[in-house]
């Protein structure tokens, strides 16, 4: 299996309500994109405020295998989400690893 972790830094104009809309979109991936074993997403509520660095959303997806991870990127549901970030995203960090 493969783990896919993404953390998002949104620009200053993004409201907490908009962030929750984005989280809801991410959570909908599980029923729509094949190969997802487990998925969690949410707004960053860490008390380690010195380590936030502006990153306000997190996503963790477990995929069945590397092929499922590779198919996720171009999947239309994922691409629609990526497009919805236009003008909202300041930075993103992605980490993928075998588990």
What's the short story on this structure?
The protein is α+β, with helices and mostly antiparallel strands and 99 residues long. 32% of the residues lie in helices and 34% in strands. The longest helix has 12 residues, at 16-27.
Strand fraction band?
25-35%
Q: Please tell me what the overall shape is.
A: globular
CATH architecture: 2-Layer Sandwich
Please give the largest β-sheet. Answer: 4 strands, antiparallel
- CA-to-CA gap between the ends? 5 Å
List low-pLDDT spans. Answer: none
- Mean pLDDT over the full residue set: 97
The tally of helices reads 4
CATH topology: Alpha-Beta Plaits
Rg, nearest Å? 13 Å
Question: So what's the CATH class?
Answer: Alpha Beta
Bin the helical content: 25-40%
**SS-derived structural category:** alpha+beta
* Element string (H = helix, E = strand): EHHEEHHE
Subunit structure: Homodimer.
Protein name: Dabb family protein
Domain Stress-response A/B barrel: 2-97
InterPro entries: Dabb, Dimeric_a/b-barrel, HS1/DABB1-like
Provide an overview of this structure:
By secondary structure, the chain is of the alpha+beta class. The chain has one domain: Alpha-Beta Plaits (2-Layer Sandwich), CATH 3.30.70. Helices cover 32% and strands 34% of the residues. The protein contains four helices and four strands, in the order βααββααβ. The protein has a four-stranded antiparallel sheet. The chain is globular. The N and C termini lie close together (5 Å). The mean pLDDT is 97.
């Amino acid at each position: 299996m493969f783990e896919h972790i993404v953390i998002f830094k949104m620009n200053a104009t993004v409201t907490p309500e908009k962030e929750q809309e984005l989280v809801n979109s991410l959570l909908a991936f599980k029923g729509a994109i094949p190969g997802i074993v487990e998925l969690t997403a949410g707004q960053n509520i860490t008390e380690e405020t010195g380590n936030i660095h502006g990153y306000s959303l997190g996503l963790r997806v477990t995929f069945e295998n590397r092929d499922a991870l590779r198919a996720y990127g171009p999947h239309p549901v994922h691409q629609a989400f990526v497009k919805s970030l236009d003008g909202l995203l300041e930075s993103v960090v992605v980490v993928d690893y075998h588990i």
